[in-house]
Amino acid sequence: MCEGIARRSPASPADLWDGSRHPRARLEERAVARFHQAVSCLCLPMDSLRAEADALEAEIKALRRACVELPAPGEDTSPVRQSFQDIYQSDSEGWESLKDLRSHLGHVESELQFLSLLTGISIRNYSKKTEDLTSTEMTEKNIKKVLQRHRLSGSCHMITFQLEFQILEIQNKESLSSVITDLSIIMEPTEYSELSEFVSRTEERRDLFMFFRSLHFFVEWCEYRKRTFKHFKEKYPETVHLTKGASSSYMGIRSHSRPEFELVIVWRIQIDEEGKVLPRLDLLTKAPLSALELDKNRVIETAPLSFRTLLGVLGIEATLESLIKSLCTEEQVPTQ
Amino acid sequence: MELANTLSQDGESGGGVLAHLERLETQMSRSHKKLEEPQSAQAVESALGTKIRQLRCLRDKLRAEVRHRQARIKASTASVAPDQTLEMSEQDILERRQENLKAILQAYRFTGISGKLTSRGVCVCISTAFEGNLLDSYFVDLVMQKPLRIHHHSIPVFIPLEEIAAKYLQTNIQHFLFILSEYLNAYSGRKFQADRLQSDFTALLAGPLQRNSLCTVLSFTYNVELKGQSFPFGARLLYKDLTTTLPTDVSITHQGMDTLPSTWEEQRAAHESLFFKKPLHQVFTSFARKGDELDVNLAF
Known about the structure:
The complex is a heterodimer.
Chain A: H1 13-17, H2 23-41, H3 46-69, H4 85-119, E1 122-132, H5 136-140, E2 144-156, E3 159-171, E4 176-188, H6 193-205, H7 208-235, E5 240-241, E6 250-254, E7 262-271, E8 277-286, H8 289-294, H9 299-314, H10 316-327
Antiparallel strand pairs in A: 1-2, 2-3, 3-4, 5-6, 6-7, 7-8
Chain B: H1 2-10, H2 12-36, H3 41-75, H4 84-107, E1 113-117, E2 121-130, E3 133-143, E4 149-153, H5 161-168, H6 173-200, E5 210-211, E6 217-226, E7 229-238, E8 249-254, H7 262-277, H8 280-299
Antiparallel strand pairs in B: 1-2, 2-3, 3-4, 5-6, 6-7, 7-8
Helix pairs in contact in B: 1-2, 2-3, 5-6
């Protein structure tokens, strides 16, 4: 199979500093360098980049601490002079494996970091208990029955979760069947009311993969909504009002000169029975009674319906922009 | 700043390495200040990317410096025994952490998407399940170059992989993987239902199940019992949405008679709506159960 030229990842800067290197450590370092190159090829949303920057800064802080604790070259390393040859012998082995351990650990950490960037899901803790349920009858027929209890916790952006699930594995001569027999989910923050129904449905269906899939799409839509609200707030600061914050489902549009008229965009993100994540936008109007009486063409009354049509034609951003522009015709040029 | 302190302590000898690191750091804080100025989204993103590269560089150099110092300590340990007990516990801590991290690596398969770094990139494994039953896994081997490339994969040919890759692979890899997972899980689910129908309900089927490889067109005839009479219904299920496990079109027809008596018509309509709402094999489970109930009635 023609693979093309496999590019050797550039030597890590660490190689330039340290002369004598353990061969396996070198291999591990190449793996870490590969990881960096892999990450640089991914087009990741900005939040992942920020998360990576934060993680790097934390690591640098820890390393600096370590640097301070270790005496610098040239300093007296230790006041105690002993000659325990045996201890030294075993100790040198200890040092060797410790060094190996550290670099191997670095490799595993890189792989985990990569997976978390790839999936957008960060698993912090995981534990598993296995219970053998094979009866003597089953063993005679060459059937093995095992119950696994898993506990998993982590986060996807701003949402943290804790899962407990059981998998029943039955192995007979022909096949191995694995079935999730129980699933329980705890999620925070609970301010996303749309999620509680989703959680109970997912637990009922024991659909572990759907949980993570829908979580990913839900979070993406939430981030997109937040970015869009923030964008319009920055562009039209006098007209757009985010009274409940950019992470909420509400965006108000109100002209500075005519504050009695208000349009409220309600942007909900719903998860249906099949786990599909869909945005649902609605328009609420507020107008003084006198205006409603003058509105012969019932423009205000039919606004919510027209809004839906407009969404279908222009898409979300263009629709919101046109609504804002319609109310701020007297406003100064927007700040951009 | 800690670095500055060690610098003054070391004097000449440590000055080289740490001074360099300090220079890197001031460079970074300068670019960090740049980030704080109002900028366009693109500029911020590229500044972030640069910052991340610089942070990585600094982190790698710090790592090397720590290792360097540890190595020198080891070299001068000939006549000194470092605190052995401290080392042992550090090893324990590290080993425990390694075990924990390795377990977490394994646990990623429960998200439905996991992967292993390879020599050329990453091999992603997408797992599928239906109603709690863990089913087939598929893999996609990605080459980490710009642009990202699929080296090879085990995705069935009737899943629109090229289409999905064209839309998302270069711009949002998380999206690419989760959408692919949606298609694969739906296919796995439909296949599971069709397989179960064929294997568990042959008694109720009046003929073979006709299906396409994507399991989006299913056609079969099944027997319905009512008041001691058995009648074949023809069913045709279409799944036009490739990301769902329930049909989008259901048509139940009768064979033979032109018009059905009202009770049969009721049954036919009820069955149609059942097939829309519940997975195929569950519908047949309820048929089988109803059959048992009827038998009980007849016995008395």
